[in-house]
Write a structure and sequence with these properties.
The protein is about 40% helix and about 15% strand. By secondary structure, the protein is of the alpha/beta class. The protein has two domains: about 180 residues, Glycerate kinase, domain 1 (Rossmann fold, 3-Layer(aba) Sandwich), CATH 3.40.50.10350; about 220 residues, Glycerate kinase, domain 2. The strands form three sheets. It has a six-stranded mixed beta sheet, sandwiched between helices. The radius of gyration is 22 Å and the shape is elongated. The protein starts with 15 loop residues before the first helix and ends with a helix. Adenosine-5'-diphosphate binds next to strand 11, strand 12, helix 17 and helix 18.
């Protein structure tokens, strides 16, 4: 496995959303300016809670670094609503928004909110139809999100295709990033409709996957059972000079009981027989690749992240020379989280459901770990909360605020997520900022 690129943190880069919010804050009077000066001096006041309410006295800039609430709010909307609620009770407080993502769907949107340029490309969707997908580009770094081309969100009418869905479009997105001159590609994976081991992606980048008759195998993971040879000689030569970082929030191997098909196949519509067929097909695919490129192909199949997004992690490790990094970790670097953290004293993170999964490398856990290491106070917002206070505390989250605390009817929480989140943010403002 190659070593990952050293992405430099860009100091003081303010994102578009932040600029909007800051200018709004400035309009609210001198108090904000005074507060901004105080935070700019980098002298974050001690933020330890001073009472049962968690009120911490004077808090400097607030950093909102939350992921989306899947199914109800994008990460940008979460940031906007939280900022609006905070302002109602603490208009003097300066707020900075840095929507985050962990490699799955929403990753390009987070990069764009942080100032990357959004580039759209027509690519092949999971069922072979054309879709418009976007990647993000800034200063030679491209953020490519496989879900943009090959995600569940791309299935027309939500009809699953566990055996036939292809990652070909993800390869086309990578090709577009290469055409644009990217030197580093952060390849965010997750939220996929596919279980093809990344064969479609590699085919789009020049690898030939042939059956016993010498014909290209059909798209999708199911057809990999009939794979006879893999020819990597036509792989796009530009990949040799580009650092590819596999950004994933899961570290599953390619196959077996914790592999791509067994764990994530069912959420793509795979029944037990499909799971068995896909698992066998992926195992066979790895054997064919081992014949083509040697034992490292077998080693990669066991590597963390190989089983991400239907095995596209494996395809990226084997074919693109990618290095694996936990998605939220690399994305925090890409988004410029460290400097934003430094100028803040309270961090608000969150996602739709704060649960056990959150603790295993999802965005709020990554944000909280980094913020805690920097001695910052962290609270979380979420649609639903399924973690006990002790578990939150271990993750570095002082308190979590759920929409369902305000509105017990979950369907209303989803339908009216924005206004309810503003109310929740008001409570945070009262507890920590007023
Ligand atoms: N507004 C909301 N109110 C209550 N629950 C929500 C809301 N939005 C999302 N959720 C819950 O969060 C789940 C999505 O979790 P989330 O953490 O956003 O994504 P992931 O699937 O990556 O874990 C939804 O299935 C739903 O249960
Ligand atoms: O696409 C997938 O197979 C899974 C794992 O990578 O994604 P998510 O974590 O979003 O369920």
């Amino acid at each position: 496995m190659g070593s990952g690129p050293r992405l430099r943190l860009r100091s003081q880069r303010r994102d578009c959303l932040t600029a909007v919010m800051s200018s709004k804050a400035r309009k609210q009077g001198d108090a904000t300016v005074a507060d901004a000066a105080w935070t700019a001096a980098g002298k974050a006041q001690p933020t330890g809670p001073s009472g049962p309410s968690g009120r911490s006295g004077r808090v400097g800039r607030v950093l909102i670094a939350a992921d989306k609430f899947k199914g109800s709010l994008t990460a940008v909307e979460v940031a906007e609503r939280v900022a609006a609620g905070l302002r109602r009770v603490a208009p003097h407080v300066e707020v900075e928004a840095l929507p985050v993502a962990d490699g799955g769907d929403g990753t390009v949107a987070a990069a764009v909110a942080a100032g990357f340029e959004r580039r759209e490309v027509r690519v092949t969707g999971p069922l072979g139809d054309e879709v418009t997908a976007a990647y993000a580009l800034r200063d030679g770094t491209a953020v490519v999100e496989m879900a943009e081309a090959s995600g569940l969100q791309r299935l027309p009418d939500g009809v699953f295709a566990p055996l036939t869905a292809t990652t070909y479009g993800s390869g086309e997105l990578i090709r577009a990033a290469l055409d644009a001159g990217a030197r580093t590609i952060v390849f965010g994976v997750g939220g996929s409709a596919t279980t093809d081991g990344g064969a479609g992606m590699l085919a789009a980048l020049g690898v030939r996957f042939l059956d016993a008759e010498g014909e290209p195998v059909a798209p999708g993971g199911g057809a990999l059972r009939g794979l006879a040879t893999a020819d990597l000689s036509g792989l796009d030569p530009r990949l040799a000079d580009v650092d590819v970082v596999l950004a994933s929030d899961v570290d599953n191997p390619l196959t077996g009981p914790t592999g791509a098909a067994a764990v994530y196949g069912p959420q793509k519509g795979a029944g037990p027989e499909d799971v068995a067929a896909l698992d066998a097909a992926l195992g066979h695919y790895a054997e064919v690749l081992e014949k083509a490129i040697g034992p490292r192909a077998a080693e990669y199949a066991q590597s963390p992240g190989a089983g991400a997004a239907g095995g596209i992690g494996y395809g990226a490790l084997v074919g693109l020379g990618a290095s694996f990094r936990p998605g939220i970790e690399i994305m925090l670097d890409v988004l410029g989280f460290a400097p934003a953290l430094e100028r803040s004293s309270l961090v608000i993170t969150g996602e739709g459901s704060l649960d056990e999964q959150t603790l295993h490398g999802k965005a709020p856990a990554g944000v909280a770990a980094a913020a805690r290491a920097a001695g910052k106070e962290v609270v979380a917002v979420c649609g639903r909360l399924a973690l006990r206070p002790e578990a939150l505390g271990r993750a570095g989250i002082r308190r979590a605020y759920a929409l369902t605390d305000v509105e017990p009817d979950v369907s209303r929480c989803i339908a009216e997520a924005g206004p309810i989140l503003e109310n929740v943010a008001e409570r945070i403002g009262q507890d920590f900022l007023a």
